[in-house]
Amino acid sequence: MARAILETPMGEPFFAREPADLPTMEETLTRSGLEFMQAILRGDISNPPIGRTLGYMLDAVEEGRVAFRGTPSFETLNPLGTVHGGWYGTLLDSAMACAVMTKVPRGSIYTTLEYKVNITRSIPVGREIVADGVVSHSGRSTGVAEGTIRDAETGKLYATGSTTCLIMPATIKPGT
């Protein structure tokens, strides 16, 4: 079911602001992971609220690959005045895990089991980046992906990562 409000009045992407804005479990389970991610990209369902909070959004979706685009703001800085490692981790977790999600069959869900981040250099505040996640393995119960954060303009590498996700049948069935 498509939401009535897909964009803000200024044409900006719509981010969920309350639980009712998020897709229901039934809406989620009627789509494969790829269909679900494509629905977010098209605006059929809301972007997750964490993207609004941390300044990033879905940019590209294909089977086995997802990219997010974002810009760290002043609010993402640590006490030393550099972008907090948690911002890198959140972007990479989103990109890598959502790439795994594109391989999840209809009626199943996934969750991150673990992820690792290697920061290679500091991202300047206000610099647009692309966080790219690519699946290297997708099985019946696990998915593995790698990711990078690169400068959107120059391609300069800021961080790499890897993840393992658990893929499982949903315990809540559509219509219940």
Number of separate strands: 6
Total DSSP helices = 4
Q: Into which percent range does the helicity of residues fall?
A: 10-25%
**Major sheet attributes:** 6 strands, antiparallel
The value of Rg in angstroms is 16 Å
Output the keywords.
176 residues; 22% helix; 6 strands; alpha+beta; disordered N terminus
Task: Describe the protein's architecture and organization.
By secondary structure, this protein is α+β, with helices and mostly antiparallel strands. The chain contains four helices and six strands. A six-stranded antiparallel beta sheet has the order 1-2-4-5-6-3. Residues 1-10 have low confidence and may be disordered.
Show the helix and strand layout.
Elements: H1 25-29, H2 33-42, H3 49-54, E1 56-62, E2 65-70, H4 85-101, E3 108-119, E4 129-138, E5 142-151, E6 157-169
Antiparallel strand pairs: 1-2, 2-4, 3-6, 4-5, 5-6
Offer a concise description of the structure.
With 176 residues, the protein is of the alpha+beta class. It contains four helices and six strands.
